[in-house]
Automatic annotation (TrEMBL):
Protein name: Rod shape-determining protein RodA
Transmembrane segments: 12-32, 44-60, 67-87, 99-123, 143-162, 168-185, 192-210, 284-302, 314-331, 351-373
Domain of life: Bacteria
PANTHER family, per database record: CELL CYCLE PROTEIN, PEPTIDOGLYCAN GLYCOSYLTRANSFERASE MRDB
GO molecular function terms listed in the Swiss-Prot or TrEMBL record: lipid-linked peptidoglycan transporter activity
Record's keyword annotation contains Transmembrane: yes
Broad class of where this protein is predominantly found: membrane
Keywords: Cell shape, Membrane, Transmembrane, Transmembrane helix
Lineage: Bacteria, Bacillati, Bacillota, Bacilli, Bacillales
Length: 386
């Protein structure tokens, strides 16, 4: 083993630092255009996130594995508290969901956001510990691992689904992505994924063409179909489709090069949060939107390279979980603003305004910084650090 350099400059992930700085700049410019009153708070959260990254960087994988179930348990306890807590100023209800703790002097804390990172850590530890104890893999051992992962990922999903559909989908994407690299035989994975895809397609088909069946036998309320209607035909959906109509108008009016900084003409409520991509599309057009997509591609590419150079399975699992989380966020957020996907309220990573969302992403980056900072190379390893 060659060990690792003692020089901070050699161990620090400067590429990832540059990418985060570019995201910070993009976020600040976009939020300033939407409502400059939110800019100081966003900068404050970026500052807190930077401190969190600095703290997490100095913990290595062994320490993270020891702390995993503590973080996971605290997250689950906070989610359970929201399920049973009455509606108060401390646990208010917003937009029909009780998903926040309001702490005076700090602001709103959304436990389901932080649970994304805690779930990634838990699933990584489950896979690492299972493979460390399993000498020979069989169909039975793979099935046991799947059950362990389903339990670790299913508990937060069950608690979050009553609060936030968007976060639920993110947790499911994380679980699905990490199962793919868990080493479980495809004889188990293909039937499960095939069944899930078939059920999802069937539910969507019934939501569009078989609503009488859903209303009669599953007791789904008629108002719950409005989200599907506003996605498929926002113009004819009335008020429920206005957000999407305005989003399409804003992005479409930007054309190729956009209208320029500060030239926002299409009104979109709360566009600094989930619909921040419409600001980029309207002000900087197709070119600006493409550059943002490229920036995310570079981030995911860098995370993938980090996974490949890592010598520790736990680090690889962490990278895959973070990639699954970021990729799904970007795909869903951009997709919902251009009518490719239904609106689910998922923010754009690092750019949308929001303390809990930004802190979650910064904590995830802290795990990646730690992996690179504590990375060791081996004398006969064919993999080279980048």
């Amino acid at each position: 083993m060659r060990g690792r350099s003692n020089q901070f400059s050699d161990r620090f992930d400067w590429t990832l630092c540059l990418l985060i700085m570019l995201f910070c700049l993009t976020s600040c410019v976009s939020i300033y255009s939407a409502n400059k009153a939110y800019l100081p708070t966003q900068l404050m959260w970026y500052g807190i996130g930077a401190i969190a990254i600095a703290v997490l960087t100095y913990f290595d994988n062994e320490q993270f594995r020891k702390l995993t179930w503590i973080f996971y348990g605290v997250g689950i306890a906070l989610l359970v508290g929201l399920v049973f807590a009455p509606i108060t100023d401390f646990t208010p209800q917003r937009n029909g969901a009780q998903s926040w703790y309001v702490i005076p002097g700090i602001g709103s804390i959304q436990p389901s956001e932080y649970m994304k990172v805690f779930t990634i850590m838990a699933l990584s530890k489950v896979m690492h510990d299972h493979h460390e104890k399993t000498i020979y893999t069989t169909f039975k051992t793979d099935f046991i691992l799947l059950c362990k992962m389903a339990l670790a990922g299913g508990i937060p999903i069950a608690l979050v689904i009553v609060q936030d559909l968007g976060t639920t989908l993110v947790l499911m994407a994380i679980l699905a992505g990490m199962i793919l690299v868990s080493g479980i035989t495809w004889k188990i994975i293909i039937p499960i994924y095939g069944t899930a895809l078939s059920l999802g397609s069937l539910i969507l088909y019934l939501a569009i063409y078989g609503r009488d069946f859903l209303l009669k036998y599953l007791h789904i309320e008629d108002y719950q179909f409005k989200r599907i209607d506003s996605w498929l035909d926002p113009v004819e959906s009335g008020d429920s489709g206005l957000q999407l109509v305005w989003s399409l108008q804003a992005i479409g009016s930007g054309l190729i090069s956009g209208k320029g900084l500060g030239n926002i003409e299409v009104y979109i409520p709360e566009r600094h949060t989930d619909f921040v991509f419409t600001i980029i599309g309207e002000e900087y057009g197709f070119i600006g939107g493409s550059l943002i997509i490229i920036l995310y591609f570079l981030l995911i590419y860098h995370l993938t390279r980090t996974a490949f150079i890592s010598n520790d399975p736990y680090s690889i699992y962490i990278c895959v979980g973070v990639i699954s989380m970021i990729a799904f966020h970007v795909f869903e957020n951009v997709g919902m603003t251009i009518q490719l996907l239904p609106i689910t309220g998922i923010p754009l990573p690092f750019i949308s305004y929001g303390g809990s969302s930004l802190m979650t992403n910064m904590m995830a980056m802290g795990l990646i910084f730690s992996i690179r900072y504590h990375h060791r190379t081996y004398m006969f390893s064919s993999r080279l650090a980048v």
